[in-house]
Structures are given as structure tokens and as C-alpha cells.
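hey so u asked for the seq, here:
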Amino acid sequence: MGKELVIKALRHEKTERVPWVPFAGVHAGKLKGYTGKEILTDADKLVESLLEVNKLYMPDGMPITFDLQIEAEILGCSLLWADNNPPSVKSHPLAEDKTIPCRCTIPTKESGRIPVILDAMRRVKAEIGDQTALYGLICGPFTLASHLRGTSIFMDMVKDPQYVKDLIEFCSEVCIQMAEYYIEAGMDVIAIVDPLVSQVSPKHIENLLADGFIAVFDFIRSKGALSSFFVCGNASKQIEVMCKMNPDGISVDENVNLVEAKKISDKYNITIGGNIPLTTTMLLGNQQDNMKAVIDILDSVDHHNFILSPGCDMPYDTPIENTIAAAQAVRNPDDARKMLENYTVVVDDIDVEIPDYKNLDKVLIELFLLDPDQCAACTYMLNSVVDIYDEIKDIAEYRVYKYFIREDIARTRKMGLTNLPTMCIDGEQKYISIIPPKEELIAEIKKYAEAKKAK
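ran it, C-alpha cells below
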């Protein structure tokens, strides 16, 4: 039974095959013709969509939602809703109010959209919980703190680390409370999803963030549930410190070299999950591309302590047949290998023109993002530029490229970028999976502007 495979993998036991956990967040609504907002605000539509995911994709485990804004909305962030994505945070209540929220604001079971989520969890548990491992996804402490404080938190880490520690402690208490609700509702695995962890150094994580994360994972374990720590973006340098926080498993996206990451997770006897490419393969590829991606991953790593999944929340418009092909490949890898014997992936590169950076009148900031509406790390990298734009608009301009648009994918390849999000300044890669503090970024842009003047 699929549920048993996931539980065995996270308990570091031998499994008969690799477990399959598709992250069908708002994509679940696509299967029944619902928008992202509809399934994230209506328990009936969410349950209907999740049961369709279970029917079509034959998952061994699956999340109920993939929405990192549930807690932020309750704590005062306003949201921007979209039909094809989860909502994104558009305001930060602590941006101009550098305080720690009162413990009385920690969400209750009746807060915000929590009743909708808990209702769906209980109903899906009753329907398929005996055969499919169910994941409750929670916004991690650092990303939640960033939602509340905004991009200023990156400067706080340098200038006021104690404030960051105190805010992380509060956010960890929110995570613990949410974990308790989700465990009571029958979730087998509690996943702490914190994309912004990939944007800060391991040293900052150990000094400022680790205590809060460890407290969350210890709590989950004390309640008899399993845990997963999901960090998207280029988390290669953060893998070891993630393992040291002692979750049962970690999960990474396509930015991370899975073979190298698994060497580290194996050293700590922690299960790793990942990392079918979302855009180039699941969204824009064909069935053979998806089968090949699965087989290539399966053939690259030892199957002990491993769960196969997409690199992150699946795009809303992912073709159903592509995900079915991935599911079939993981369940029947030998058959898939035979079907792929003479198949070669075709790279659909479009001819794009790279700017003549030396002769531009202004400094050009280029933001290469996965999806600024869905990827929190991408959102905050974009906001780091938007927030200072009034101060730099006379000397600089910026452009945004999205890795789900074919032309932008081709541009990313032509620029030689291998990790997203990345910020380039006048064609040079300056910030790779790192959110620069405000003052540092302004100084860097001014340096490029002065170099232009000197010429």
C-alpha cells in the first residue's frame, strides 16, 4: 500500500519501490475545472479535487494544500489572489512596525481559512487515509517572518539579529500550533515548507533560525507524526544545516544536484525527496520527457531513504498526461526504460537577443525567476528591487524573466544560468539564490552606474 511506502521511507526502512508524492497544489483544482482560489476557500471543491488527484495520479502520498499564505493572512498580511496560483503576500504588517506580535494572535482552529483546511483534511482522511499518506504543509518560520516583516528582515539579520531570533521564535510557535491542528485532523506527515531558507547563508541559519526549526521538528516527533523540511531554490549549501535540524526528511527542487545532496542526507540518515523539473519537463514537456526525467532520477541515486516528487508545487496547467506518465514510470520503471530506449529529449531553444550591456544608458537589473507569483524566494528577490526602485530609477531599470515562458527559458539558458532565482546586473550574475540587503544592493547598483560614467 502506498501509505506504508511513504511511512517506511521516512522511518528509514527498506521499501519495495520508491514512493511517489506529487505536489498537486492548485493544480488539483485544474482537474475539476476550479481556480486556485476556489479550492483554497471552499472545502467541498478542495476535497473533490484531491480525490481526483488520488484517482488519476495514484500517489503514495499527497498534500492537502500547498499554500504558504494561510498563516500570514491570519496574522495581518493582505493577499493577492490569482486563478492559476496560490495567493501571494502583498503587504507586510511589520514592515514599518518592528515589533513581535502578541502570542494572542497565534491562529486558532477558527482563524481565517483554517476551518476550510481542517474540514478537507478530515474528509480526505476518511476517504483515502488508509491507503495514501496525507501531508499537512505549513509555512516555515523564516518565510512566515519574511511575510510579516518584508524584505527588511534581510537587513535585520545583519543589524538586529536578536530581533530576528525573537520573531523566528514567535513564528515557530505558530508552526507548532498549526502542526498540532493538522496532526489532530489526521495528517501523517507535517511538512515545514520554507523556501527562503535557501536565500541565506548556513551561518545565519545556524545562528538565527535553527533553534526555531528544531523546536518545530521536535514537537512533531513528540506527537507521533513524521516530518519533512522542504526548501526550494538552490539549497545546495544549506543541505547539511537542514539535516542538522533533525527532520525525518528533506525535499529539494531542480536547482539542487540530487546525487550530491543525497550523499549529505545519507550521512545523517535522513530521507530526501525530489526533484522532477517543474517547467521544462512537467509543464512544457511531453509524456516521454516526464518518463525520462523519472527514470534518470531513479537511476542516479540509491533508493533507500528516497521519495520521488516534483521539485515543488506543480504548475496549475501541467498536462494531466504528463503527471500520469511520471506516475507510471515510478511504478513500472522497467517498462518505462523499454519505451525510452530510442528517445532523446529535444531542447526547444528560441533565439533571443542579449542586451548590449556596455552601451546601455542605465544599469540593467535582470531578475531570472521561477515564478514571482508562486515562488516565495522569487517574490522577495523581485521585491528587493521594487522596494528601492524610487531611489535608483534615475540610474537603473529592471526586467523580469519567468521560467515558465519559453522565451525566458531560452534566455536563461543563453545567459548560462543554472540556478534560480538569480539577479544579474549589466549581464553579470550578482545574487544567486541570495536576497541582498537594501543598502548593499543600492551600493552595488551605484558602483555599476559610476563605471558607466567613467567610460
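The first strand starts at residue 61 and ends at 63. Residues 161-184 form the longest helix (24 residues).
lmk if thats what u needed
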